[in-house]
User: Fold this.
Amino acid sequence: MNIIEIRDLWKSFGDHTVFQGVSFDVPEGQTTAIIGPSGSGKSVLLKHMVGLLAPDRGALRVFGVDVVQADEAALYAIRRRMGMLFQAGALFDSMTVGENVAFPLVHHAPGLSPQARREKVLEKLDLVGMPDFCDRMPASLSGGQLKRVGLARAIVMEPEIVLFDEPNSGLDPLTSDAIDELICDMKAKLGITFVVISHDIVGTVAVADHIAMLYGGALVAFGPTAQVLRSPVPIVRRFLQRNLILPEADGMPARLPTPAL
Ligand SMILES: Nc1ncnc2c1ncn2[C@@H]1O[C@H](COP(=O)(O)OP(=O)(O)OP(=O)(O)O)[C@@H](O)[C@H]1O
Ligand SMILES: [Mg+2]
Assistant:
């Protein structure tokens, strides 16, 4: 099943066009990576998925619900089922790690007792490998530790989808690998569907079941990772080749297939 469906998305900011008819699906229970050069619209696409930005044209369905047409109540219900880590998503400095992780619960599940809330927070911190950090302040944490806490906060509501903008940015290769492993673990253990945006191509290939590549307002590659690695499209190969030794390309397709709704 496809948990997110994007159809013929068009978006401009003033006279700057970001998308000119982008269509693809995010399969449930798998990890889909969105790649592409800086400014190609990766973060903008993620914001469309949670209804923070509206397209000029096109349809976007999450859990089968049209988020473009959805009213505030319907959007709220969808967002409760999604965890988000934005590119610039920092923790609140004045709160402890535990308070940061508890934040979505305080707002979305106010009926929960403080004890039940604390249990959930400790459970999620344990899941990301940070069991003893509940009472620490964010300022005393490393970049990799902050990413882990951010992930704990994103999953505290037990979402079905997690959108993760740049899980690896600013991390050394080993810490970056550890975050990638965490994503794979959560997909396997919790059945979470991940949509990740990454500039780390090697890491992306390791975590992603599917890859979507944006370039020049269009989707220039989409499919299972192994298939995208064999893409004959020159810009896709150039983008990937900088970091990877690619298998031989497939024959050039007439055009990218667009699945029907
Ligand atoms: N709110 C906005 N208003 C106007 N322009 C915007 C807005 N948000 C994004 N843009 C523009 O849309 C384009 C795509 O931005 P986006 O942040 O999605 O890029 P990106 O692919 O995530 O890049 P990066 O890899 O550097 O994070 C950019 O040209 C950006 O300047
Ligand atoms: Mg971005």
Q: What stands out?
A: The chain has a mean pLDDT of 91. The beta strands are 2-13, 16-27, 31-35, 57-62, 65-66, 82-85, 161-165, 193-197, 210-215, 218-224. Residues 89-158 form one domain. Residues 120 and 156 are 7 Å apart (CA to CA).
